[in-house]
Design goal:
By secondary structure, the chain is α/β, with parallel strands linked by helices. It has 11 helices and 5 strands. Strand 4, helix 3 and strand 5 form a beta-alpha-beta unit. Helix 7 crosses helix 8 and helix 8 crosses helix 10. About 2% of the residues have low confidence.
Length: 296
């Protein structure tokens, strides 16, 4: 699992990072000492946020509310020495999934985070089952033309090439590619995509009718796609760092991403930085991805 720590005490952050690393629970991919300077852009590669309840600037509850509005759908684990049941109740009401007490106890941290990992694993399995059922339902319907099948096959092959076939956003991307193919068959140009939220809405509305579910899934899709694109971005950067003449790197890096950002990510990887300050253009990636599979 990938964790992000929001905690004003540097000693606590260091302890948590050490426990997470030594217990094999995952890795800490980012940290912040308050909620003021944390945004969704820092959380696209994050599974779980560990957050202090009492912090200067924005407290834990205010920070959670802000990040939920921005689209983060993962679990929050609250860390605090506050014993006031009303305050803890408010924290649960506003979105925390579980609670770790201060002072930090190694066994409690491991126990809580393993429960969170189990929950995420079950949720992921249920999501995979749901998507498989949807795929089987679609398979029962007659295929209008072999073009759509070819597009999907090419997209799956490109996902493998980019090292993101196993990402949860892969099925979302395939749905987007199918939609773009349909639009083109109807005579609509696809070189200029609609705004991303509008695009995601068009895909999600095919699966859900209830508005509350639509809005929730749009936010979840946005996060899955962003995380997947970030993974492709880092994968290509790693290939370029290992071998600048790698054919996959040479062909796809400048087509799918801004090459200056790729070079910056290569420098970050070389310096051992897990998180990134790079700007990733998801819209460009989706349009370029479609052009690649269309022309393949």
């Amino acid at each position: 699992m990938r964790f992000f720590l929001i905690e004003d005490d540097a000693v606590v952050r260091k302890m948590l990072e050490k426990i997470i690393h030594e217990s094999g629970l995952g890795e800490v991919v980012g940290q912040a000492e308050d909620g003021l300077h944390v945004s969704i852009d820092q959380l696209y590669a994050v599974d779980v946020v560990l957050i202090d309840l009492l912090m200067p600037g924005l407290d834990g509850i205010q920070t959670m509310k802000k990040l939920r509005v921005q689209g983060f759908t993962g679990p929050f684990v609250m860390i605090s020495q506050v014993e006031n049941k009303e305050m803890i109740g408010q924290a649960y009401l506003h979105g925390i999934d579980t609670y770790i007490h201060k002072p930090i106890n190694r066994y409690e941290v491991i126990s809580v985070l393993r429960r969170v990992a189990d929950y995420l694993s079950v949720a992921s399995s249920l999501d995979s089952i749901r998507r498989l059922v949807q795929t089987l339902e679609k398979a029962k319907q007659p295929i209008a033309a072999s073009h759509e099948t070819t597009i999907e096959q090419k997209a799956q092959q490109l996902l493998l090439t980019l090292g993101i076939a196993g990402e949860s956003g892969a099925s979302d991307l395939l749905a987007i590619m199918r939609w773009l193919s349909e639009q083109e068959q109807q005579g609509r140009a696809i070189h200029d995509l609609p705004p991303l939220k509008e695009l995601y809405a068009k895909i999600v509305q095919r699966m859900y009718k209830e508005e509350s579910l639509v809005q929730k899934e749009i936010r979840a899709m946005e996060q899955r796609i962003r995380r997947m694109v970030l993974q492709a971005f880092t994968h290509l950067s790693s290939l370029g760092l290992a071998d600048y003449t790698n054919p996959t790197f040479e062909h796809f890096a400048p087509r799918l991403f801004d090459f200056e950002e790729i070079r910056l990510r290569m420098q970050e990887l070389e310096a051992g930085e897990k998180a990134t300050r790079c700007r990733i253009n998801v819209k460009k990636f989706l349009a370029a991805f479609y052009m690649e599979i269309k022309g393949a």
